[in-house]
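TL;DR need structure tokens for one chain.
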Amino acid sequence: MKIVQMLFPEGKSKAFTMSYDDGVIQDRRLVAMMNQYGIKGTFNLNAGFLGRCERAVIDGIDTDITKIQKEEVTTLYQNHEVANHGFTHLKVTDVGPEVVANQIIEDRKVLESLTDYICQGFAYPFGCYNDEAITTLKACGLVYARTVVNTGTFDLPEDFMKWHPTCHHNDERLMMLAKDFCKNEGLFGSPRLFYLWGHSYEFDQRDNWEVIEELLGYIKDYKDNVWFATNGEIYQYVTSFKQLIYSVDGSKVMNPSSRDIYISVDGICYTIPSGKTIQLT
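>> reply
TL;DR here they are.
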């Protein structure tokens, strides 16, 4: 055994995910487009602002940032993931751990009452974070958190609590990155993750909805080798991969997790069923 690489479900070597913030009404159009192309993503909501009608000047542009209604959450995002963004979008670096904890817990209470799963994801409001805030987030049961640091790469995160995305949808490199991601493979077969983020109101600001439609239309043609997943699904899968247990000579591998895991060993694809041990040949 020389090289072991994680593969995504069905033995795919690539994954694509999206992360959009604030729960604004423009999400309706974005979600409809994602559903049309079979793309999945995560939407980070401020439960304290649901249903609020408002406008704001953002980047010098008067913008409608009206939030979706609370009653919409269940149906609008049913094919996707709902995650935390703080109850009222406070910077977690501007307040003490008690307030951060309250922001997370109150947000989780509402969001979990509207979904049939546990909301363990987060996106840092304004992209701000520090070690103290991360400690508090973990204490509140969160397991991953997205930053706004664009890497321009397709690497898996070294730390899921500092999950840096590939790029924002307004990045000038967007389609160049998409073509690289779809057409090329990772070094020595390493898995590739394209992580896109933004706010759907930004498409209204620039009147450039064609940007996201071009991207989704392009990537969906590579679905045979790309896993379209939510942020949470990617976190759970990678975590399960890291739980694999190998025999000392590397000839056997056991999967103690609750999901099937795919790996490549010296270029050969193996499926390790949940709870099973297999022989590597």
